Amino acid sequence: MKPRVTVITLGVDHLETALQFYRDGLGLPTEGIIGEEFEHGAVAFFDLQPGLKLAIWNRKDIAHEAKVALAQPGATEFTLGHNVNSKAEVDQVMVQAEAAGATITDPAHDTFWGGYSGHFQDPDGHLWEVVWNPQWDTIE
């Protein structure tokens, strides 16, 4: 398998609420909810960097499509890392996320490894890390 991730899909309980959080609160570009005419098909895609999209899809529809039992969500199953270019940008994104309805679980702070980061959960409990790593090249 070649490492080629093109879509990260988050299971959500309320598609409209998640859409408002990511589109209106965080400002991610999207065409909105599509596929509502199909049973289990309503989904929204957000453009991230070139070649990568974020999708939100109802958890019960993911379970139906993948033919797995609908399970309780767990915040620590994975995190989404949003890397930025400065400490100030970490602070800015954290403020934006909180204003959009995120729960700040770990306020932005200097890290033991020399960076700066904070964590928040979206309305469905998905965990995001906003991080500045001084060892990485500038993020465009």
From TrEMBL:
Pfam families: Glyoxalase (PF00903). Residues 4-133 form the VOC domain. InterPro entries: Glyas_Bleomycin-R_OHBP_Dase, Glyas_Fos-R_dOase_dom, VOC_core. CDD domains: VOC_like. This is VOC family protein.
